[in-house]
Each structure stands twice: as C-alpha cells, then as structure tokens.
Amino acid sequence: MTKQRKGGELGHSEDGELRYNLQFNSTLLCVLEFFNWPIEIVCSCNGLVCVADRAAEVVYLGNPVTRQFKKLPPPSEQEDCEEFLLGFGFDDISNDYKILRISKELEQEDEEDDDTMMYALQAELYSANGDSWKQIQIPETLEYFPISRVVCVNLKGSRVLYFEGSHELLSFDLHEEVFRVYPYPISYPTSLRQKNQRIKSFVLDFEGSVALIFNESTDDGSVPSLWTLNEVLGNWSWTKEEFNLDDSFKEIQLTRLYMGDGQFFSRGVGGYIFYDYKKKHVKKILDHAPLLVWKLTDYTETLVSLEGFEQLK
User: InterPro entries attached here (predicted)?
Assistant: First the structure.
C-alpha cells in the first residue's frame, strides 16, 4: 500500500516503484511517482519537471535524475475557477525558468449550446530567479479566449509556450510576456461537440515546429493531416507536411507526443500505441494503461539544479 500525505508532500510508494519509465529509442517518457498525492499536470524543460495538483496550487520543480525538488510558493487563491493550466519553459534572455498559470472562470453557460460557455481567463507568472509569482495582464481581446485542452507545449530551445484553443492557437512569450494567437489552417463548424472529430492531437513539438494533427474532409470521409506553424521573414504561416498518415493512423483517437524519428505516441482503441509514420508501423503497448499515462511528458535527462532544490530522502 502507498501512504497518502496531505498538502502535496514529497514521498514515495512503499511497494518500491518511484518512477514508471518507458524507454523507446532516445526519448524517455517519464511518469513521476515521487508524490503521494494526485498529480494532474506535468511539464518538462531541460531535464527539469514541473508537477502540480488539479488546481495548480501545489506546484513543484525538480530533477528526477538527481532526485532534487523544490515546493514553490503558492500562487493566488481563485476559488471560483473551474480549470487551470500550467506552461513551463526557459527564458534564455533572462536566464530564468518560468511557469505560466492560467485559470478559467466560467461566467456564462447555455446547456443547449457549448459555444456560449464563456470562460474569463486570468494569468500569473512564476520566476525561479525571484522565487515569486506576479499577475500577467491578459489583453481584452483574449480575456475570453476558449482554451480547449489543459495541455501546453514548449519547443526545445524556445521561450514560447503554446496552448490549444478551440479555433486558434494561443502562444505566450516568457520574456516579452506577450500573448499571440494564430488561426488554424482549416475551418470547421463552430460546434465544440465536433472538436474530437476535428483535432486529433495535443499541441506537438514536431521536428522543432509547433504542430497539430487535423481531420480533413474528403469525398471518401476524413483524412488525418499534420500541419506545422513556422515563421518566415517575420510572417507566421501553417504548412501541411507532405507525408501520408496511412489507414492504421485512422484508428488513433488522440496523439499525445511526437518523439522524433517519425514516431508518435498515441491513444488508440483499447490501449496506447507507438505509430511510426516513416515505416507505417504500429506497436501496441499498455493494453490496460493506468491513469499514470496522463502524467506523462517528453523528458531528457540532465543534471540541472536550481537554488532551493532539496534532496528527496
């Protein structure tokens, strides 16, 4: 049995396993069990991980390799908020690790039409250098931006975080502290009930570009296609990648990660799979995948440590 500790304390399971690791080529998918409380959010950057509870009130930064962690000061309390998002990345200009916390407060709801659900956004930014949180002003035009998944991606070597919206991609520059939006390349009906039929992936880091997999309508039904967002001469545009996702990919319900070398980690019918688009090969794993899979992130081992990190006993 595992002892449960209140308040988000560090601990480990008495049955022995501190970590569930899945090695596949050079990418490590790491599900942390350093904590005896429900971890709902996991992000990684430069070998560090950020983990938090559902309300993103109890937040830790740490290094699973060195087994050093730090409990962060609590952000402001927001009792009326229904959902929280965290984005974690490195500001290379300020040489500072930062965390963006976005809260969603439901202000209007129509049971007949999901599109009239209005969430007011609030944002806070944590600085590891200052060990403190501060409020971030959200522009009036984005105050009700419909963020659709509690998932964020930060590209390797980039200080920009990306969040999936219902009809646009939202980004936040950790140094400039500026939000931007990028309309999706494919237009769909406005009903959010059809969202799972439209976007078939989390926001991905695909070969250094932010990417999404969309379902495109054809005369024969729908075809999944991968689009990347890139900057060329100061202008941002979407590019459809010129490779086919074959029929076996159509069985995939949701793609979680791109792991490099043509390989995606996805959820299919009845389990989780690796899909290699170059080899057109599917490898099924975790037939009865535990909920821990949702506490999974693309992770690279390093020895990075920050001030205030303490050794896990």
Answer: F-box-assoc_dom_typ3 (IPR013187), F-box-assoc_interact_dom (IPR017451), SCF_F-box_component (IPR050796)
